[in-house]
Design a protein that fits this description.
heterodimer; A: mainly alpha; 434 Repressor (Amino-terminal Domain); two-stranded antiparallel ribbon; B: alpha/beta; 8 strands; 20% strand
Chain lengths: 131, 182
């Protein structure tokens, strides 16, 4: 027991749900890094020794599982460091609060659209960071 | 009556036509965007199953939806895409404002719907990606989405967009050059 909480097994469905949440964050971080890198899929393929273009497309589309080795090679090609972070659930925060369509006495302000081509920040657990 | 109130009514009045997807929050997460699902689809996604493949598929779809609801990065070429109507002149192909949400796990499905308001998406119908390869199937699903929308919100139009931030107001990325040039 830690902090007085009994360690019951985590339900399988919850483990699967967390797996897909983490997978989505990884793919989302990869796509953001790819867009920021300014590379094309052709160039990425060439940088990785003429890697199969279909496979690169599947990695970016999220239809093929990524290994840590693949992630590292993609990071190198994009001139990024791959940083993996285990963030406690109680440190998970949302970037903005919800647009308030039903005003109460304490209305939440409606978020404003950003001016740049990308808005806000990525909360991905796997980050590609320019060294 | 406002679009928001009509949607809330559709979610509240039995038999409910729509159900808001509000996943269990972890830590300091909060609901950042609204996602309403057609009621039968919501029930189907949440129906328990002991078949592992089905459970994984449904959880993959719900994880995709959670990205939207919990405010993670949404783009307009991988996460979701505008649906083209190829039966009309090229300058009108997006006139109906139908979008498809694109979970990337097998068997791939596309979930069709509309932005009712900024940061509020309504999912109305779905089809497997394989079936969408049948002749005319994209248009059939597009028309179906429009029909359901009109039945639910006869006097309201979907929220129009000139740029993606008209629809997803924070943490968005634009990457689909088919509908506007940056």
């Amino acid at each position: 027991m830690i902090d007085g909480i009994k360690h019951n097994p985590i339900p399988e469905r919850e483990l699967i749900a967390d797996y897909f949440d983490n997978l989505h964050r990884a793919y989302s971080a990869l796509r953001s890094a790819f867009r920021l890198s300014g590379l094309t899929q052709d160039l990425l393929s060439r940088l990785l020794g003429n890697a199969d273009k279909g496979q690169i497309s599947r990695w970016l589309n999220g239809t093929q599982n990524l290994t840590l080795k693949t992630l590292s090679r993609l990071a190198s090609a994009m001139k990024c460091a791959l940083i993996i972070e285990f963030r406690p659930f109680d440190k998970m925060t949302a970037p903005k609060t919800i647009g308030n369509y039903f005003p109460t006495s304490d209305p939440t302000p409606q978020t404003k659209p950003p001016q740049a081509e990308t808005g806000g920040t990525d909360k991905a657990k796997v980050d590609f960071v320019q060294p | 009556m406002s679009t928001a109130l009509i949607l809330a009514q559709q979610e509240a009045d039995p038999p409910r036509a729509l159900v808001r997807y509000q996943p269990k929050l972890k830590g300091r997460q909060s609901y950042v965007r609204h996602l309403s699902l057609e009621a039968e689809m919501f029930d189907w996604l949440h129906k328990s199953t002991h078949v592992r493949e089905t459970m994984e598929f449904k959880e993959a779809v719900l994880a995709h939806f959670r990205q939207f609801v919990l405010g993670e990065t949404i783009d307009d070429c991988y996460y979701m895409k505008r649906v083209e109507d190829r039966r009309v002149p090229t300058d009108q192909i997006f006139h109906h404002e139908v979008w498809s949400i694109r979970p990337r796990f097998q068997p791939q499905h596309r979930f069709f719907g509309f932005f009712a308001l900024p940061d509020w998406f309504v999912v109305l119908n779905k089809q497997t990606r394989r079936k969408l390869d049948d002749p005319g199937e994209w248009h059939r699903q597009l028309d179906k989405a429009v029909r359901i929308w009109v039945a639910l919100l006869p006097s309201q139009s979907p929220h129009p967009a000139h740029v993606f931030s008209d629809l997803v107001t924070s943490n968005w990325e634009h990457c689909d050059d088919r509908w506007y040039q940056t």
